[in-house]
């Protein structure tokens, strides 16, 4: 029987983590994480502080190197123990990260911040990088802020520059590490709205956040982590509204 392209895409595994272990000294932070994430899934990772959520994200793009395990992004596999710098560099081009503290260059404008990766990492000509970067800033609602420096932008606008910088690279997967937790409460909505818009484009996303309402609205899948392992994994309806595991129930009752 012939399988349609649509069904094939739906089933395509975009991110695969196998047996991920990471310790900082004697502190065992990841204790064997196995995960498969399909193309287009928007996965929210929930869990108490210190459960290893950020470390897991950072191990996917080798900002941290796991002690053991394998990371595969779009069929490109890197063994955490043995990987050469060359393989790590290649894997990194498949992901883009949005950081809690935005991590923008203070001495560059919004446009220059977004152009940087295209020029330096992709070797794109400046004039082409400018066109793509302007489009990315327009997508996040910052068409009127191209020439503004980070200090002239609100936290929410700075984070939207961070999101533009990620999408302009056209990665296979975007990793977002608590993208709203440094923001004043009144600025959280605009950033979540932007993430929601980007999610609609069908890009695969993995988001660490404490925003439960947002997770319910945007996530196609919710993962609950504790003690460096995946405790529960399912739809938002299953994990947030009808958690099976006691640890998930306890966590949700604390933060609701
Ligand atoms: P979460 O994102 O769930 O709050 P993290 O992954 O940030 O958890 O942290 C898990 C544990 O790893 C914490 O105990 C933290 O102190 C430790 N940790 C994280 N990064 C480092 C690091 N660079 N050096 C030492 N310990 C770290």
TrEMBL record:
Localization: Cell membrane
Membrane topology: Peripheral membrane protein
CDD domains recorded: ABC_HisP_GlnQ
Primary localization: membrane
GO CC annotation: plasma membrane
Matching InterPro entries: AAA+_ATPase, ABC_ATPase_HisP-typ, ABC_transporter-like_ATP-bd, ABC_transporter-like_CS, MetN_ABC_transporter-like, P-loop_NTPase
Keywords: ATP-binding, Cell membrane, Membrane, Nucleotide-binding, Transport
GO molecular function: ABC-type amino acid transporter activity; ATP binding; ATP hydrolysis activity
Superkingdom field: Bacteria
Ranges for domain ABC transporter: 15-252
Protein name: L-cystine transport system ATP-binding protein
UniProt lineage: Bacteria, Bacillati, Bacillota, Clostridia, Lachnospirales
